[in-house]
Amino acid sequence: MNIAFITDSDKLSGGVKQLYYNMLGLKERKNNIFLVCKKNADIEEISKNYVTESMNIDFSKKLKSGIRVADKFREWNIDIIHSFHNKGHKLAVISKIFYGKPKLFVNRGVTFLPHNLLFYHNPLVDGFIVNSSSVKKVLKSILIPDRKISVIYNAYDPSDNNFHNKSEIVIDESKVNICAIVSDSKWKAPDNIFKTFNKLKYKDLAFHIIGDIDKTKYAGLIDNDQMDKFVFWGKRKDVPDILKKMDIFVHLPRSGDSLPNIIIEAFDASLPIVASDVGGISEIVVDTKGGFIVKSISNAVEKISLLINDKNKRGYMGKFNSNLVKHFSLNKKIDLLLECYNGKNIVQNIYSE
Residue 327: what are its φ and ψ, rounded to 5°? Predict the structure, then answer.
């Protein structure tokens, strides 16, 4: 098949990581891969070995760019269009008005209500591919038919060096090392992380913060006697190696998150998880076996405290999670994607397989 991916994202986000994995896996199955993206988008550089041809367009010029893309799809003889991110979805629909042959699948990986309902209810969309049942529930709430929504969970490929650089990490292993990935995005709720960690007054703790944030914004949330426990790593490409040195992973978004890639990476590092009951997180974190699903900061403090004080429980839960990683294989995701492209409605039950 000739498969075209469209995204307006120019950074290596979680959604772009899954787009890249799709390209990689589909190319290995002898499909021809094409890409439409912004000029100088990161995805174009890292996928160049898998893409037959790419096209750079201006997503702000919807009609003009849509016509150009349709002409290119005709030239490429595209069978499947798979769009990522809102502007990508809009452009995909417009292109199909002018070249109707390909099937169009819209990817959705957040639990926010879509604002561009005209594009979501457009009959030119053949199907939606979502990464959790929680996103499917959101789409059904805006009257997207059940038969058009396929649930296919994220894949994880620890061997890929485009996202995961290897490095030697040195930390103080005499402490209990607790890790969180944060960003300044309001719905990612970095304040929840700092408020929670600040309440953990135990000795011999280290709080590891990974992400490109302005830490001065959160200084007021940290007591003076807690400040020296924080380690700020900044933005990293060796996150899996950092995680392997940790004891507990904490993820406390406020809303929006459907299925964070980082939780699967924490599974692979054999870490227990303490995470918010947001989106599809509770679909993959098995409460009381692989960690704890929490509903408040005080609840998070309680469960992290339990893990701080019980090394055996940390070990048991981490081992449980490491055994879950096989369910997120790229081969399995590609099997399901191809079935979906060929007309089958997929509802993956991640741990029953």
Answer: -75, -10
CATH architecture of the domain formed by 176-327: 3-Layer(aba) Sandwich (3.40)
Domain extent listing, the chain: 2-155+329-341, 176-327
- Close Cβ partners of 276 (under 8 Å, ≥ 6 residues apart): 189, 192, 251, 252, 253, 254, 257, 293, 294, 295, 300
* Cβ pair 293, 284 in contact under 8 A: no
- Record the pTM: 0.93
What tens digit of pLDDT does each residue of 225-282 get? 999 999 999 988 889 999 999 999 999 998 878 899 999 999 999 999 999 999 999 9
For residue 40, give every residue at least 6 positions away whose Cβ sits within 8 Å of its Cβ, in sequence order, or none: 10
CATH architecture of 2-155+329-341: 3-Layer(aba) Sandwich (3.40)
DSSP state of 123: T
> Same fold for the domain at 2-155+329-341 and the one at 176-327?
yes
The one-letter code for the residue type at 353 is E
Q: Decide if 226 contacts 251 (C-beta within 8 A).
A: no
Mean pLDDT by 10 residues, the chain (353 residues): 96 90 96 96 92 96 95 98 94 96 96 84 95 95 96 89 72 94 84 96 95 87 93 89 96 88 96 96 96 97 98 97 95 97 94 77
Instruction: Report the alpha-carbon distance of residue 301 to residue 319 in Å, rounded.
Output: 22
β-sheet with 291-294: strand ranges across: 230-234, 205-210, 176-181, 248-251, 273-276, 291-294
* Measured distance CA(148)–CA(166) in Å, rounded: 40
- Secondary structure class of 178 (helix, strand, coil): strand
